[in-house]
Design a protein that fits this description.
The complex is a heterotetramer of chains A (about 100), B (about 190), C (about 1000) and D (about 425). With about 100 residues, chain A is α+β, with helices and mostly antiparallel strands. Chain A has two helices and six strands. Chain A has a single domain, classed as Folate-binding superfamily (Folate-binding fold), CATH 3.30.2270. The longest helix of chain A has 10 residues. Chain B is an alpha+beta fold and about 190 residues long. In chain B, the strands form two sheets. Chain B has a six-stranded antiparallel β-sheet, covered by helices on one side. In chain B, strands 4-5-6-3-7 form a five-stranded antiparallel β-sheet, covered by helices on one side. Chain B is globular and about 50 Å long. The termini of chain B are far apart. The model of chain C has no long low-confidence stretch (mean pLDDT about 95). Chain C is about 20% helix and about 25% strand. In chain C, helix 9 crosses helix 11. The chains are: A alpha+beta (about 100), B alpha+beta (about 190), C alpha+beta (about 1000), D alpha/beta (about 425). Chains in contact: A-B, A-C, A-D, B-C, C-D. The interface between C and D is large, with 122 and 120 residues. Strand 31 of chain C pairs antiparallel with strand 16 of chain D, so a sheet runs across the interface.
Chain lengths: ~100, ~190, ~1000, ~425
């Protein structure tokens, strides 16, 4: 597979380490009242779609960026890739 | 100056060098390295007057060079300055950055061709999954090589540097040596 | 005399070779198969199940019969297709899958018993008596099965891997592929043309068709000259593209030296990973045979292969040859052979309206219904309108139509589509992205069709990536429609082979139908159809057609087979690449490796690292003796150990403290500059992840250490936290593991030793207390880092210097500390020291344990959010009562063995009563007893009690006293002195 | 019809006239007491045991394609019970005992062959861990032996002992482990179930569940609605997709695992060998092919095909361990989709929806579990209580903190 790195172009997927669903970016608040429930959901439950999947890849043998890659799990077609850091910052309201 | 005697990454007192037909591979034991990372929200620095290159690039100037290693991160190279506290010097030049000594974190191998670019390209094809067509002089990237991760720098049409983990120097040498020797056998 | 005139062989040179020990000769340009035929050898192998005598069927990689063991000794290579083995001088080949000689295979008795061996028979028997399966039936079956043999000797050859990139990959160097490559290369695109053959041309070499009214060879030669001058075109002969993988990556094997006796300095084969923007598949087509009774006699072969042998290799399998065909194609063979002086016994054409195209006997509307000649075809039975007669023939060419080679087009699970007009499966629309199919593979099998479709495919493929290519002037070529009528098999009661190698007959397909094994995958699995080394290239479509006929369905309703990589067999050695053996994985050496070697150290693999395990001295006879000495020397004087392998991560930035607070279960932001703290990391699921120390060198600068094993994962995890979880924090990370040689200096004399090398730095207990750290210089100005931390329980430090000075520093410390008892120690002593002190390591931190089990439950702060904190409070984890304890045998002479399980005395020992296990064990010279660490249910409450350490695996059962895990200095006084 | 050697001879001499369909092709009934979704190994074994052991009647197995088309038809055929944890080991040992008697029971030769499995040891730490495991096996009633370097060498002298990156220091041996002919297992259970009256319905895809008031009433299928008393789902890699139709998210990800077979060779390897320092395990089939595999590809996938790097990785491991296989050829590679659970262990449990039961999370280890999985799932369906050996394989263990994590890698399915 080839991963379209947003800064470096197409890169051999072997340079990357796969983690899983990009929802792992959205870590719940561990000090909240309902943390037990939200963390169970966060750590263990997955949509596991047969189709478009947003997922985390780490460019371990490259620039050490975490990427959010959008990929179809039925065809392996890659629909896009972003720096996970940008995705995470956007989710936090663009807080700089 | 310390009275301890340094040892090269390959375990010798002298750097190793060997030729394979048109290709010469040499351990560069005197290369100083320091990493430099931008602090959050800070402007991109110009340490010691060296313009820092963008993603995938290497740039030389002022007797030094720099290559991009990640978003907001570079490696600064200084030939011949391995014995110095080079990171200290970089930190002084870029006090607002995070600077880390990396000289001995890596082993550098300089590969030169006496027959132009072709042997370099053949070697690249056997070593790493980099499309040589888009990897002209001034390119630098990190990639996998025989289960290791290395920086590959195209210093010139006929010159290449492979920089990898110092502790794996022997394995990297073995990979380079085997590939070069087999090219010779073809 | 089977050599004909002409052909692409070099008659000026003679190559000698042996087959089954007998010497023959051939010429450069021959394959083993063509050379054997030229020497009148028709019998080349035996079938898989019935051990039927077999001859060569094809002239290419689809060959099911002529499989040999090529070469000898460690280079012996089983199941090599004689049709693909290029002849070289001194070639040695042997037939396989036989007991006795090839002509008198004792296992041919299987053929006589064949009624008992019908499809699926073994599922129905061999069940009684039960014990007989492994003892009798199965060994018998295993011996009889299999094909060629491996020698159990290591493959002596070298192999390479490499990476290529191109705009267009052209797979197949026949008419279509050549036209595609020419078109694309002239347009300036980066092109790779790969063909499995050693010569370009594909079927152009096998036919007598002209191009621009001249022999096709002329055009190929001109083209090759032009190719040589195009730097943007890489022609790869002897290269099989075997698989289409994701995103335009194709696997290809180049047989660099397989045509030579030995590879010499080069490699035998190279595995290429080709990344192509676009692909033209021009893999040609494979001819089908037509099953009839005894159609597997040596001498019965594909009609197109017969043409290849005649035109390319100048050989005919016999002097008198017949053709059995369902279309015009068979007649071509007759004409070509006649032109070379071979006698045509007749063309048997299933079509009643068939016309002879030359002066040969024609049997129109007839079939071949039987064949005689066990070791080589002698005669054929021809049946027309219910009457039969026999004719003499030494070979029969069978032409049942052509199957496009759509394999690579289907590697992404695309389904080929049945085309009734051409009676073939054509590539569907669900091709791998970027692929265009051309030539016979796309059903455009005439020479003109192949050339034009190849060129058009290149234009279209390049157009899609913005490269404009022009159609070249293509040579004038034949474009005759090939009339053909569907005819799949000759009905009859005797066995008619569908799959030659695996001995699947029409009867087996019928039986599968009768037993409701109708879905094509059931058919395949029940009969083993298409599962032989040829993967059913010549069998599958025919079998589908037979099944369709039986069920009254159409062929597309019956199904298609799924093609999977590899297209043809790929040697495991080339897939495994060059570096195996000692270079299977990188070897990381510590900075003191060379020094340790000079001291006679014994090394041990620790993940990627090689570490000194112990340093034997003269007179020491066992490793234990050495280790005991190293441990005692450390506790009594000072020990030195290279601990560089521990991961080191440099953490900088204004928010470094806050960041580490969230990474570690315990607090790090509150750590004072110049101090070190032990830290425990949890995984987000609440289990212990890694431990180590965290040193604060400056307000905005920490150095984190990890365990050796987890250095990579922890760094990745920290980058995840930095980039994905808390990108708003100002933190920068970089690994510095290799940058610093780090040496542990442990023992009561540690300070005295260090005082001799530091440059005027106060390391007194007051000036540099337990858990202090500093940047300083040693040995006259060498920059260094000093940490006062202890893994051994002794007064201890770790000193770090730039890695290139590691060996020198170690040597210096041993030298200046000689009077202090300075002793290098290895990982064994390191292990003993830490077990004596009760420090958890890999055996305890195995990913299944919790902070609570490690006795560190209280370290998990409830005042802050940190990774894993929430999940560590789940019911099941809180309820866990096993805790880390020390264990000592009641009788000190008894062994303590890690991996023993703990039980109450007198309890029945089973899963339900299991109380825990011993994680680590060693002999403690300090206590003169074996000791262990272990996890024990309610461990804290059991201190002082006796439990049983059961190790039935090794027949051990030892009474153990439960003690504190801190065997040495439980109060920690030594650390702080 | 009963199969036997005598019968095979008789049929051979009389033109096979007596051989009939191995199972019927029934039309679906309007409703069943039990519907098993998934005609793979686990589904077929469940139906068989439900009918045979628990007296279940009116049972149907619904299969989207052909029987045994999933992982039962493409795996490396290994059976073993060499697990560590109490949540797993008794279950797999129960499975092992069922394997040992299944063929005589369902009258079909599935070629269960106990030629042993050898897990190689390369470090002292690994030896400690394997000793712990081997002892755990003993306490659960399984067999295990710890071999030293010399014992391994005596068994397989041609492994790479001389020039190995990771020297072989010994091995954990389970002699009762081995292989079974995967298709034969599916067919044996299918035929057995059919003979007990189970309707095996092929080409019948479940497209939805009819659920009212938190109770399942039946399933919508490509062949119409079918009512059900209880519905058991055993669809392996499709678990996420199928259970989503019932509105459930699972602690499961779907991944691709590749398996490989070489061309046929004369007997070379007797038992199963696993090489822990690389990613490689191998056995040799009765037909002569080396059957081997390694790690999963590592990314979520439903595509049923893998990529080249894993093929290379597995071959590298193979070459490192046994350089004598270099000149054998890879014949076929195929990818199956795996229901990788968050702790690497399976789930056999009720769901929050009444009447809907789940059998999933087998990762790439489902084949060896086939008999016990079927038995335990049938037990659960019939009695609403978990089978003794499967009592830890609960769906709520993740929330409650009772994970069964053999590898100790936590909630990351691609590492299990």
């Amino acid at each position: 597979m080839l991963i379209p790195h947003p800064l470096l172009g197409l890169r051999d997927a072997q340079e990357f380490t796969y983690l899983g669903d990009a929802s792992l970016i959205h870590r719940p608040d561990g000090m909240a009242e309902n943390a037990a429930e939200t963390f169970f959901d966060y750590v263990y439950l997955r949509d596991n779609p047969a189709g478009v999947h947003r997922e985390l890849w780490f460019h371990e043998q490259g620039d050490r960026s975490w990427l959010v890659v959008t990929r179809d799990t039925t065809t392996h077609e890659i629909l896009g890739a972003e720096l996970a850091r940008d995705v995470a910052l956007a989710a936090k309201g663009g807080a700089q | 100056m310390t009275d301890l005697a340094p040892m090269t990454a390959l375990g010798g007192s002298l750097a190793r060098a060997q030729s394979f037909g048109a290709l010469a591979i040499a351990e560069n034991a005197d290369l100083a390295l320091a990493s430099l990372a931008q602090r959050r929200g800070a402007a991109q620095p110009v340490p010691m007057g060296l313009a820092l290159p963008g993603p995938g690039l290497w740039h030389a100037g002022n007797g030094m060079a720099a290559f991009w290693t990640g978003p907001g991160q570079w490696m600064i190279e200084a030939p011949g300055r391995a014995a110095e506290d080079f990171a200290g010097a970089v930190k002084q030049a870029a006090p607002e950055c995070s600077v880390t000594e990396q000289t001995d974190a890596f082993v550098a191998f300089e590969i030169a061709s006496s027959a132009g670019a072709a042997p370099i390209l053949s070697l690249l094809a056997k070593l790493v999954n980099i499309d040589a067509a888009g990897f002209g002089p001034g390119s630098a990237t990190r990639t996998g090589l025989e289960h290791m991760s290395v920086f590959v720098i195209r210093r010139a049409e006929d010159r290449l540097a492979v920089i990898g983990m110092r502790s794996a120097a022997g394995s990297i040498w073995h990979a380079l040596e085997s590939a070069a020797a087999r090219l010779q056998g073809e | 005399m089977s050599r004909l005139s002409g052909g692409l062989i070099d008659r000026s040179q003679r190559l000698s070779f042996t087959f089954d020990g007998k010497s023959y000769s051939g010429h450069p340009g021959d394959t083993l198969a063509s050379a054997l035929l030229a020497n009148d050898v028709r019998l080349m192998g035996r079938s898989f199940k019935y051990h039927r005598p077999r001859g060569v069927v094809s002239s290419g990689s689809e060959e099911p019969n002529a499989l040999v063991e090529l070469r000898s000794g460690a280079r012996q290579e089983p199941n090599t297709r004689a049709t693909m083995a290029e002849l070289y001088d001194g070639l040695i080949a042997n037939s396989q899958n036989r007991v006795g000689s090839l002509a008198f295979d004792l296992l041919a008795v299987n053929d006589l018993a064949s009624p008992f061996f019908a499809a699926g028979f073994y599922y129905k028997t061999f069940m009684w008596p039960k014990a007989f399966w492994e003892k009798l039936y199965e060994p018998m079956i295993r011996k009889a099965a299999g094909l060629g043999s491996l020698t159990k000797l290591a493959d002596p050859d070298d192999y390479d891997k490499g990476f290529l990139h191109c705009d267009l990959l052209v797979i197949g160097g026949g008419a279509a592929g050549l036209a595609a490559a020419l078109t694309a290369a002239r347009a300036g695109a980066r092109v790779i043309l790969a063909d499995e053959d050693f010569r370009l041309g594909g079927r152009l070499m096998a036919e007598t068709h002209t191009l621009n009214d001249a022999p096709a060879g002329d055009w190929i030669a001109a083209l090759e000259a032009e190719f040589d001058a195009l730097p943007n075109l890489r022609v790869m002969r002897r290269t099989t593209v075997f698989g289409a993988f994701d995103h335009g990556i194709y696997g290809a094997v180049e047989r660099v030296s397989d045509h030579l006796a030995t590879p010499g300095k080069a490699v035998r084969q190279t595995l290429w990973r080709i990344t192509a923007k676009r692909i033209v598949l021009a893999a040609g087509a494979t001819e089908r045979h037509i099953p009839f009774a005894n159609n597997d006699r040596p001498g019965v072969m594909l009609s197109g292969a017969m043409r290849t042998y005649a035109n390319r290799y100048a050989v005919s399998p016999a002097n008198r040859v017949a053709i059995f065909t369902n279309g015009d194609d068979g007649h071509r063979t007759a004409l070509d052979l006649m032109a070379k002086g071979v006698e045509i016994a007749g063309v048997i054409d299933t079509r009643t309206e068939a016309k002879a195209l030359g002066k040969y006997p024609l049997f129109a509307g007839a079939v071949v219904s039987n064949a005689k000649g066990r070791l080589g075809l002698k005669s054929l039975e021809i049946t027309r309108d219910g009457t039969s007669h026999w004719i003499e023939a030494g070979a029969l060419g069978v032409s049942g139509g052509w199957n496009p080679n759509v394999h690579l087009a289907s590697h992404h699970r695309g389904r080929p589509v049945w085309d009734e007009a051409s009676l073939a499966f054509l590539p569907g629309t669900d091709l791998p992205p970027g692929m265009v199919v051309a030539g016979a593979a796309a059903g455009r099998g005439t020479t003109h069709g192949a050339l034009t479709s190849g060129a058009e495919a290149a234009v279209a493929a390049l157009g899609a990536i913005g490269i404009t290519a022009a159609l070249p002037d293509l040579p004038r070529a034949e474009d005759a429609p090939q009339a053909q009528s569907a005819f799949w098999h000759v009905p009859g009661k005797a066995r008619a082979w569908v799959d030659f190698q695996n001995d699947v007959t029409v009867k087996d397909v019928k039986l599968a139908r009768q037993e409701n094994m109708v879905p094509v995958e059931h058919l395949k699995r029940w009969t083993t159809l298409g599962m032989a080394t040829d993967q059913g290239k010549t069998a599958n479509v025919t079998a589908l057609a037979v099944m369709a006929e039986l069920t009254g369905k159409t062929i597309p309703q019956t199904g298609t087979t799924i093609f999977r990589p590899p297209y043809t067999g790929v040697s495991l050695a080339v897939l495994g690449g060059g570096d195996t053996g000692a270079h299977f994985r990188p070897r990381r050496l510590t900075p003191t490796h060379e020094w340790a070697k000079s001291q006679g150290a014994v090394f041990v693999e620790v993940g990627q690292w090689m570490r000194a395990q112990y340093f034997p001295r003269k007179g020491e006879t066992t490793w234990r003796e050495t280790v005991d000495r190293e441990v005692l020397a450390t506790r009594a004087g000072v020990g030195l150990c290279d601990v560089t392998t521990l991961g080191k991560v440099d953490v900088q930035g204004a928010d470094a403290g806050e960041f580490l607070n969230r990474i570690y279960a315990n607090a790090m932001a509150s750590l004072k500059v110049g101090m070190v703290r032990y830290g425990l990391m949890l995984r987000e699921d609440g289990h212990a992840y890694d431990d180590g120390t965290c040193a604060r060198l400056a307000e905005d600068h920490y150095v984190v250490t990890t365990t050796t094993a987890q250095a990579g994962p922890v760094y990745r995890h920290m980058e995840f936290a930095r980039q994905c979880l808390w990108p708003e924090l100002d933190v920068q990370l970089i690994s510095t593991t290799d940058a610093w040689a780090q040496i542990s200096v442990a023992g009561p004399n540690a300070r005295m030793l260090l005082e001799r090398i530091v440059d005027g730095f106060d390391i007194s207990n007051e000036g540099f207390p337990f858990m202090a750290c500093a940047e300083l210089t040693v040995c006259n100005g060498l920059r260094a880092r000093l940490f006062r931390i202890s893994f051994s329980g002794e007064l201890a430090y770790e000193i770090a210097v730039p890695a290139r000075y590691g060996a020198a520093l170690m040597g210096r410390m041993v030298e200046v500390g000689a009077d202090l008892g300075a002793t290098p120690y290895g990982t064994e002593a390191l292990g003993v020291l830490r077990i004596e002190k009760g420090h958890a390591a890999g055996n305890e931190l195995n990913g299944q344990t919790t902070a609570q089990m490690l006795g560190m439950g209280k370290m998990v702060s409830t005042k802050k959010d940190s990774i894993g904190a929430v999940m560590s409070r789940r019911e099941g984890m809180v309820a866990e009562t096993r805790t880390l304890v020390g264990l000592m045998p009641v009788d000190a002479t008894e062994p303590v063995t890690a991996g023993s399980h703990l039980f109450d005395e007198g309890a029945a020992q089973k899963t339900e009563t299991d109380l825990g296990w011993i994680t680590s064990a060693c002999y403690s010279p300090h206590l003169a007893s074996g000791i262990g660490l272990g996890f024990l249910a309610n461990g804290k409450d059991r201190i002082g009690q006796v439990v049983i350490a059961a190790n039935p695996l090794q027949g051990q059962s030892v009474r153990m006293r439960v003690v504190s895990p801190h065997f040495v200095d439980p109060e920690g006084g030594r650390l702080r002195d | 019809m009963r199969f036997s050697g005598f019968r095979v001879i008789k049929e051979a001499l009389t033109g096979y006239k007596g051989w009939g369909p191995l199972w019927r092709n029934p039309e679906p009934q309007p409703s069943y007491d039990y519907i098993i979704v998934g005609g793979g190994g686990h589904g077929l074994a469940t139906a068989y045991h439900l009918a045979k052991v628990f007296g279940g009647k009116r049972i149907a197995v619904l299969e989207r394609g052909w029987l045994g088309q999933g992982n039962i038809g493409r795996n490396t055929t290994i059976i073993r019970s060499n697990y560590l944890l109490p949540g797993n080991e008794p279950f797999y040992e129960f499975s092992m005992k069922l394997w040992e008697n299944m063929e005589q029971e369902f009258n079909f030769n599935a070629m269960v062959s106990q030629r042993g499995i050898l897990n190689l040891i390369h470090t002292d730490g690994q030896r400690d861990a394997y000793r712990r495991r081997g002892n755990a096996m003993r306490f659960a009633g399984a067999d295990s032996e710890l071999l030293d370097h010399e014992q391994v060498r005596a068994m397989y002298p041609w492994l790479n002992f001389e020039n190995a990156r990771f020297p072989i220091k010994g091995g954990l041996m389970q002699r009762r482990a081995g292989t079974a002919r995967h298709d034969g297992v599916a067919w044996g259970y299918a035929r057995g179930a059919d003979l007990l009256g189970v309707d095996l319905i092929q080409n019948c895809e479940v497209t939805g569940f009819r659920i009212e008031n938190g109770k399942v009433l039946g399933v919508e299928t490509s062949r119409g609605y079918i009512g059900a008393g209880k519905v058991g789902v055993a669809v392996a890699g499709m678990s996420g997709k199928v259970m989503a139709k019932a509105g459930m998210r699972l602690p499961i990800e779907t991944h691709v695992l590749q398996a490989f077979v070489s061309e046929g060779l004369k007997p070379f390897i007797d038992g199963v060998i696993t090489f822990g320092a690389g990613h490689f395990y191998v056995s040799q089939s009765d037909k002569g092919g080396l059957v081997f595999g390694g790690d999963i590809d590592g990314y979520n996938s439903y595509a049923q095909r893998g990529n080249l790097p894993v093929i290379e990785d597995v071959a590298e491991g193979g070459m490192a361990l046994m350089p004598a296989i270099g000149r054998a050829r890879l014949l076929r590679a195929w990818g199956g989709i795996m229901d990788m659970s968050m702790d690497g262990s399976p789930i056999i449990d009720r769901t929050p929806i009444e009447g809907l039961y789940l059998n999933a999370g087998w990762c790439y280890g489902g084949f060896k579990a086939t008999p016990a999985s079927g038995y335990a799932f049938a037990h659960l369906l019939a009695t609403d209580r978990p089978h003794e050996t499967a009592r830890f394989m609960r769906l709520d263990r993740f929330e409650r903190g009772y994970v069964i994590d053999e590898k100790g890698v936590g909630a990351q399915p691609n590492l299990h």
